[in-house]
Design a protein that fits this description.
The chain is of the alpha+beta class. It has 3 domains: 47 residues; 72 residues, Translation Initiation Factor IF3 (2-Layer Sandwich), CATH 3.30.110.20; 203 residues, Methane Monooxygenase Hydroxylase, Chain G, domain 1. 63% of the residues lie in helices and 11% in strands. The chain is built from 12 helices and 8 strands. The chain has a 4-stranded mixed β-sheet, with helices on one face. The protein has a two-stranded antiparallel ribbon with strand order 1-2. Strands 3-4 form a two-stranded antiparallel ribbon. β1 and β2 form a beta hairpin. α8 packs antiparallel against α12 and α10 runs antiparallel to α12. The protein is flat and about 95 Å long. The chain starts with 10 loop residues before the first strand and ends with a helix.
């Protein structure tokens, strides 16, 4: 909704009060009437904010939710329901048995999901009769930008460590990469929750630094791309656990170079996002075409290999790394879409 602005004159009434009138059309559009209470907040030395009662109730509607679980319900179904309610912004989630009581495997599923996936959540009640989850994190304690930067750092570290684990045939490091994927997802879920809340509340939207709800959609797509970067790093790490063999040094060095190039694209695309830099985003898209040079070098170096299994493994690693460069390009295109109007205005 576009912003509306009017200028009104402050008037003095009685002995100690000042009054200001509100446009009739605003009152009608907000569904207000004579006698309704308006909450006023003084933000700083120059800002006053008014909150009508309907907005207040709408902001607090997602306080508590109850989901009922039947005894045959699968763990994956329970986890999906928890994540969906977390996304919707509920502060308290009650998990209760539809009939009888929660079985131990269901209770463990809920507790593991809260621990691994729902950032800022704690279990405050746990019994066979039900589990209560409280989302304790404050909206502005961890900003979307802050969470995104942490998520990006983890995903990049996973990618670098996955290549290192392959180079050293390090099974422990490979397992650590796989475990870190859950942490990347936790930050992703947290950001999506914040974005959904922001879309529903214009005040929170501005507090988070977004110009309009459309930018929230852009960030949602960016978050999905970063999640996929972590997934592909985990795929490479799983290959280490599966094959338990090192790759020829000449080839793994070229793979490492390709990976560093892809991560540099990802870094630049994220920086363009934060800086709202349209020109830099265009440069990243053009630069990404150079990935084929790295692929060609790896392919040429692999021609002398006789082991088909090793050739297949190298091809899979190369594909996973190439996908990271594609995600960087996707982020750059999102930056273009988010900032094209601002660029046109400058022109």
């Amino acid at each position: 909704m576009e912003e509306k602005e009017e200028t009104r004159k402050i008037q003095f009434t009685g002995k100690s009060s000042y009054i200001i009138s509100l446009p009739k059309q605003w009152i009608i559009e907000l569904g207000l009437k004579q006698g309704d209470h308006i909450r006023m907040v003084r933000k700083d030395s120059s800002t006053l904010e008014l909150f009508p009662p309907k907005l207040e109730s709408r902001n607090n509607k997602n306080e508590e939710a109850i989901i009922e679980i039947n005894s045959e319900e699968k763990a994956s179904s329970i986890v999906r329901k928890l994540i969906s309610l977390y996304f919707l912004g509920y502060k308290t989630i009650n998990v209760k048995p539809k009939n009888g009581r929660l079985v131990p495997t269901q209770r463990n599923t809920v507790k593991e999901a809260v621990k691994r996936m729902l950032m800022g959540s704690e279990i405050i009640s746990d019994s066979t009769n039900g589990i209560t989850i409280q989302v304790l994190v404050n909206l502005l304690e961890l900003s979307v930008d802050g969470a995104f930067k942490r998520m990006l750092h983890l995903a990049k570290s996973m990618s670098s460590d996955a290549i290192l684990a392959t180079k050293e045939n390090n099974v422990e490091l490979a397992q650590e990469v796989i475990n870190t994927d859950d942490e990347v997802d936790r930050f992703g879920f947290y950001i999506i929750r914040q974005l959904k809340i922001a879309i529903q509340n214009k005040h929170i939207l501005k507090e988070m630094g977004f110009r309009n709800p459309r930018n929230c959609l852009g960030y949602r797509l960016v978050v999905k791309n970063i999640e996929r970067v972590g997934d592909h790093a985990a795929f490479i790490a799983k290959d280490v656990l599966e094959y338990k063999k090192s790759i020829k040094k000449e080839i793994i060095d070229k793979i490492e170079n390709m990976n560093e190039f892809s991560l540099s694209l990802l870094d630049d695309a994220s920086l363009a996002l934060f800086k709202e830099d349209y020109v830099e985003a265009e440069n990243i898209i053009e630069k990404a075409d150079s990935i084929v040079k790295y692929e060609r070098k790896i392919r040429d170096a692999s021609k002398s290999l006789k082991n088909e299994e090793e050739v297949y493994r190298i091809r899979r690693m190369t594909e996973n790394i190439r996908r990271v460069s594609e995600y960087a390009t996707d982020i750059a295109e999102i930056v273009l879409n988010m900032n094209i109007e601002k660029t046109l205005k400058k022109t």
